[in-house]
Amino acid sequence: MSRLHRCWILSLVVLGLMSCDNQALRADKESTQNKTITDSTRIVSLSGTLTEIIALAGLEKNIVGTDVTSTYPASVNTLPKVGHVRNLQAEGILALRPNVVLALEKEIKPEILTPLQSAGVKVLLYNHEYSVYGTKKLISSVLKDLEKSDKQQDIESAIDGPLSKLKTMASKPKVLFIYARGGGNLMVAGDDTPVKTFIELSGAQNAVTGFVDYKPLTPEVLVQANPDVLLLFDTGLKSLEGNEGLLALPGMKETSAAKKQHIITMDGQYMAGFGPRVGEAALELNTKLVELGY
After folding, report:
1. Each residue of 216-274: pLDDT tens digit?
2. Which residue in 72, 91, 154, 224 has a CA-CA distance of 20 to 30 Å to 81?
3. Which residues pair with 23 in a beta bridge?
């Protein structure tokens, strides 16, 4: 074999080995890029519901920042807050050096996405239907993306268990949810709201119908609805200076709820977030209504 021939064969061998090495490097790089979660992954959650799911998936230690609706588990309250999801700045999120950001698609503004993605941050967006089915679907999607699908059955059992304990009430009480931020900002929840779905899930009925979303609370609304029970967020009742301030609202004293002082408060995220604790929250409202005699 000539020297030239041997050199040509040796060159082919070297090129082949280099090609194999490059393919291995590319495969390793792609594997790293496709890997969503590692021990060093830094997560920012822009939804209280998503934060609960992340924590239950066993990744609470990876969360480095949240939005202001993230209040559970209690440990996340010590983390940096980037504000409310509808009023965010990309710079504040990027300052936390996240690898992954999770948010609800309908809540996050498009102008936030571009700078995050340009910085190499993986942004995971989700639709959330406010129902038990929708909650389970959301949980399934999040766990799949976080490579924690093995947690699915345990989390769903934590929803179904409490729901199986709901008691049927002799009469479905009319529950009026009042969103309050002081006496000058009062709204009631109508159709197509998470609160209406939650009230019905607990076995009661929404006291107001015939309109979608929210509308201002007026004396006329109170008279027409004549609720049996008043339901507020804890923070809402506090903004009204407690039961006394609530009952002093125009038209309130004429309602059955006011006359019986049937007032229930619950944590906002717990009640309306439709997260992993939705079954527990529905059972709590159901129990409170039963204790009131319904």
Report:
1. 999 999 999 999 999 999 999 999 999 999 999 999 999 999 999 999 999 999 999 99
2. 154
3. none
Output the average pLDDT for the chain.
90
91-130 confidence digits (pLDDT tens): 999 999 999 999 999 998 889 999 999 999 999 999 999 9
> What is the sign of the dihedral through the CA atoms of 241, 209, 50 and 72?
positive
What is the domain extent for residue 259? 174-291
Two structure tokens written together for 232:
């507020």
How far apart CA 288 and CA 294 sit, in angstroms, is 9
CB 173 within 8 A of CB 257: no
Residue 16 covered by a domain: no
**C-beta of residue 227 within 8 angstroms of C-beta of residue 175:** yes
CATH number at residue 113: 3.40.50.1980
- Rounded CA-CA distance 271/280 in Å is 9
Tally DSSP H helices, then E strands, for the chain. 13, 10
Rg (CA), the chain: 26
